[in-house]
Specification:
Layout: E1 21-22, E2 32-34, H1 36-41, H2 47-54, H3 62-73, H4 94-100, H5 115-128, H6 137-144, H7 148-161, E3 162-164, H8 175-179, E4 184-186, H9 188-196, H10 201-211, E5 216-220, E6 243-249, E7 252-253, H11 259-269, E8 279-281, E9 292-293, E10 302-305
Parallel strand pairs: 4-5, 8-9
Antiparallel strand pairs: 2-3, 5-6, 6-7, 6-10, 8-10
Helix pairs in contact: 2-3, 2-5, 3-7, 5-6
Length: 314
């Protein structure tokens, strides 16, 4: 975890089970920019606070803090006490606050009802529970509020608040670059396809781009996939080397609970016609965009495919 950019003062640390742990950011959003929905719903002065709070937790996106704040108090600014005794903008129980409340604004006091303090403290708690690791984010949010429905709502909101840029443009990548990339693992068949030069250059470029953000695991490119799209007589893009199935993202299997996989799909959805794929099969049915689809065959991987022959990297 990164060291805070503003002083964090723990109020009192007592021997309770660790529920959360947080973080701070100063300038953020290199990888995740606010979506139109975020700009419409989130008060503009809160965006830099979320970003500052997220920056001290490697791997935690500011969108998660924004989503929790929205679910808990609808971006509330003042004092708020729930029927169970949770207090403040991010709804901390007093005992949890005594352990993990931090001085987010650097005024020397950690106040459960102060907006900055509450957001930084939420980040601190989440990070302690592993939120910086995409494979553990779901569990970290569940420990913030023990409800599967709550987790799903937060993840859906977080996905809708961010546009994933992955910090750079999609550029050409050679087969050797992909083969020697330690952040891309492949089955023997997939590796053989890359070595044989039968993989579309656009697929190689996207794998390289995605790996800059998350390590990924490739299950199939061409060899080992059926010639036809399941249940049809249409020839699959896999047959032409124009498709790939990504089965692991950030060390975890692709599933609806893998937030990193969700970010990959968001990234692909935002590429546009110039370099974006024609097909993005994925488990996230609520993320609707041209070319995106969800069915039982794509519940455990991200399928990326191009319909037309590569005529250069556009």
């Amino acid at each position: 975890m990164k060291r805070p950019l503003i002083a964090i003062g723990l109020v009192v640390v007592i021997a309770l089970p660790v529920l959360f742990m947080g973080a701070l950011l100063a300038i953020a959003g290199d990888d995740v920019s606010p979506s139109d929905k975020a700009l419409e719903e989130i008060p503009s002065d809160l965006l830099p606070v979320y970003m500052s709070a997220a920056s001290t937790c490697d791997g935690l996106d500011w969108t998660v803090l924004a989503a929790i704040h929205r679910v808990e108090t609808n971006f509330g600014r003042g004092r708020a006490t729930s029927s169970k005794g949770a207090q403040g903008p991010m709804q901390f129980m007093p005992a949890t606050w005594r352990s993990y409340g931090v001085d987010g604004d650097g005024n020397g006091v950690a106040d459960i009802n102060d907006l900055d303090d509450a957001i930084f403290s939420a980040a601190f708690l989440l990070c302690e529970n592993g939120a910086g690791d995409p494979a553990r984010l779901t569990d970290a949010i569940w420990n913030y509020n023990h409800s599967d429905q709550y987790v799903a709502e937060v993840l859906d909101l977080a996905a809708s608040y961010g546009i994933v840029t992955f910090g750079g443009a999609v550029v050409a990548a050679s087969p050797s670059q992909v083969l020697t990339n330690p952040r891309i693992t492949m089955t023997a068949n997939a590796r053989s396809d890359v070595e044989a030069g039968v993989v579309d250059a656009r697929i190689l470029a996207l794998l390289d781009a995605i790996s800059r953000r998350f390590p990924i695991g490739i299950s199939v490119l061409k060899t080992g996939h059926s010639k036809y799209v399941a249940g049809t007589d249409r020839i699959s893009n896999h047959f032409y080397g124009r498709a790939v199935d990504v089965s692991f993202v950030a060390g975890a299997p692709v599933s609806t609970s893998n937030h990193a996989a969700r970010e990959v799909v968001m990234f692909l959805a935002g590429l546009g016609a110039a370099v974006g794929p024609d097909e993005v099969g994925n488990p996230f049915g609520h993320l609707e965009f041209p070319g995106g689809f969800t069915d039982a065959d794509h519940a455990d991987h991200i399928h990326i495919g191009f319909d037309n022959k590569d005529d250069g990297l556009h």
